[in-house]
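We were asked to recover a plausible sequence for a given structure. The inputs and outputs are reproduced exactly as logged, with field labels preserved.

PROBLEM: sequence recovery
POSITIONS: 109
GIVEN STRUCTURE:
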């Protein structure tokens, strides 16, 4: 009389608490949905937790990247400052040499 069969669909993989039962009664096809709302709610809460955990991990990764970028920027600035100091010392030494040369030329004359 009645023949029951379960249709496995792609939605069952997403939410296994939904089952679609098709009942063949003579020539009439009846479709019944059986939904376990508490299981769906549990799955949605798990999904929300996974989503929140992923977002927290992304925020942590971004914070670490920002910290690394800041450290790199500080190192670049220090390197630039050291180069400026080095060039100033070189320029000062050259000026002293030129001054000494001028004084020596002045003494010879």
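RECOVERED SEQUENCE:
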């Amino acid at each position: 009389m009645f023949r029951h069969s379960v249709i496995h669909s792609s939605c069952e993989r997403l939410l296994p608490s939904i089952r679609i039962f098709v009942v063949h009664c003579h020539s009439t096809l009846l479709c019944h949905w059986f939904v376990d709302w508490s299981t769906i709610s549990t799955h949605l809460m798990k999904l929300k937790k996974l989503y929140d955990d992923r977002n927290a991990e992304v925020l942590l990764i971004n914070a670490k990247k920002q910290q690394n970028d800041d450290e790199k920027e500080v190192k670049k600035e220090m390197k630039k400052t050291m180069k400026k100091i080095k060039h100033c010392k070189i320029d000062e030494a050259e000026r002293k040499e030129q001054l000494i040369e001028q004084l020596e030329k002045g003494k010879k004359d």
